[in-house]
């Protein structure tokens, strides 16, 4: 039975901890719940926002419409060979808990993505990535329901059109589908990726000589905890900005002026710059605006330091964008969904 609530606080449903109201609010606990919701007047007559863990949203105002909380649960093994498994997880499963489940079962491929906030359903939308791994590297398929017709559709990897923190669900199909489950192709052999970032250094500090996927996960968790604020303690949405991609010419121009420029060459000849480094070079670590702040340990993260509004965070992000552009001539892009 659907329980559509009115005038609900959305503060518990966004990791920024921003106070905002939703005109209507409903939790979806099964695909059938959503199909029943489709035919209601509240659904038909209002704008709609689908949320999961609320870890990639900034509310700058109340939401005048229907907020749909995707609360689908369940994990199952749908295929297994000598070398691989296909694991299917419902969209409302907590991402980190799902990663730990895979590690417990000795399924390799997701350990570098440990401790990323949010739910499984958001992982392909964002093509989440960390420490040399992106969802597209382990993605098999996803199931979704058309938000207009109610028809079910299976999306293959190619159909998702994954890019850097992008997919069709953020572009041409934005708000067109409710993702119900995501399936991943994982390895039964422990082929580890420890070359990115400080993973090897952390493993050495942990006195690990022959690491397992659990060791890699523990190292990633330790690194993230040392740099990133816990959303349960300090409101945030993780990385607020994308790492910008620039041409070779722009890279060479910047490199002549900023010899410590942090960059990564791309296969297309362009370069990806570290947005956190750019922000830090502008002296913005710790800068505040009406309770919002740039995190003092990781400039890529904006935080709700003192019961701020979403508008204060947005204004601070605008200030960061301007400062980076003025100093480097590089335009940063927000990664977080602004409501």
Question: What does this 3D model show about the protein?
Answer:
The model has no long low-confidence stretch (mean pLDDT 92). The protein has helices at residues 31-38, 41-44, 95-104, 122-126, 157-160, 199-205, 213-227, 248-257, 275-281, 310-328, and strands at residues 5-9, 21-28, 48-51, 57-58, 63-70, 75-80, 84-90, 129-130, 133-134, 139-146, 152-156, 177-187, 235-239, 245-246, 263-265, 271-273, 288-289, 292-294, 301-304, 337-338. The protein folds into three domains: 5-70, Uridine Diphospho-n-acetylenolpyruvylglucosamine Reductase, domain 2 (2-Layer Sandwich); 75-187, Uridine Diphospho-n-acetylenolpyruvylglucosamine Reductase, domain 3, CATH 3.30.465; 235-338, UDP-N-acetylenolpyruvoylglucosamine reductase, C-terminal domain (Uridine Diphospho-n-acetylenolpyruvylglucosamine Reductase, domain 1, Alpha-Beta Complex). The chain is globular, with a radius of gyration of 21 Å. The protein has a five-stranded antiparallel β-sheet. A four-stranded mixed β-sheet has the order 1-2-5-3. The protein has a four-stranded antiparallel β-sheet with strand order 13-19-18-17. Helices cover 26% and strands 27% of the residues. The longest helix is centred in the last third of the chain and has 19 residues, at 310-328. Helix 6 (199-205) packs across helix 7. The chain is built from ten helices and 20 strands. The protein is of the alpha+beta class and 339 residues long.
């Amino acid at each position: 039975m659907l329980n559509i609530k009115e005038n609900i606080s959305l503060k518990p449903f966004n990791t920024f901890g921003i106070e905002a109201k939703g005109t209507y609010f409903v939790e979806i606990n099964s695909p059938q719940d959503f199909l029943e919701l489709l035919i209601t007047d509240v659904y038909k007559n209002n704008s709609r926002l689908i949320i999961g863990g609320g870890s990639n949203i900034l509310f700058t105002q109340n939401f005048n419409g229907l907020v749909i909380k995707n609360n689908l649960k369940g994990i199952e093994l749908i295929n297994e060979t000598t070398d691989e498994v296909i694991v299917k997880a419902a969209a409302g499963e907590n991402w980190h808990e799902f990663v730990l489940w895979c590690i417990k079962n000795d399924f390799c491929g997701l350990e570098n993505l440990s401790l990323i906030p949010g739910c499984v359903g958001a992982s392909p939308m964002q093509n989440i990535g960390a420490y040399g791994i992106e969802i597209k590297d382990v993605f098999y398929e996803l199931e979704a329901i058309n938000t207009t017709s109610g028809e079910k559709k299976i999306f293959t990897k190619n159909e998702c059109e994954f890019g850097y923190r992008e997919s069709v669900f953020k572009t041409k199909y934005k708000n067109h589908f409710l993702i119900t489950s995501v399936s991943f192709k994982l390895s039964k052999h422990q082929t580890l990726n420890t070359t990115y970032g400080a993973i090897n250094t952390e493993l050495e500090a942990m006195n690990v000589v022959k690491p397992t996927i659990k060791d890699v996960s523990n190292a990633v968790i330790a690194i993230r905890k040392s740099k990133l604020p816990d959303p349960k303690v300090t409101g945030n949405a993780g990385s607020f900005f994308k790492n910008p991609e620039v041409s070779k010419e722009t890279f060479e121009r910047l490199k002549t002026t900023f010899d410590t420029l942090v960059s990564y060459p791309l296969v297309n000849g362009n370069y990806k710059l570290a947005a956190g480094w750019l922000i830090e070079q502008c002296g913005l670590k710790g800068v505040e605006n009406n309770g919002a702040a740039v995190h003092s340990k990781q400039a890529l993260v904006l935080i709700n330091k003192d019961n701020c509004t979403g508008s204060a965070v947005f204004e601070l992000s605008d200030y960061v964008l301007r400062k980076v552009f003025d100093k480097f001539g590089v335009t940063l892009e927000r990664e977080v969904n602004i409501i």
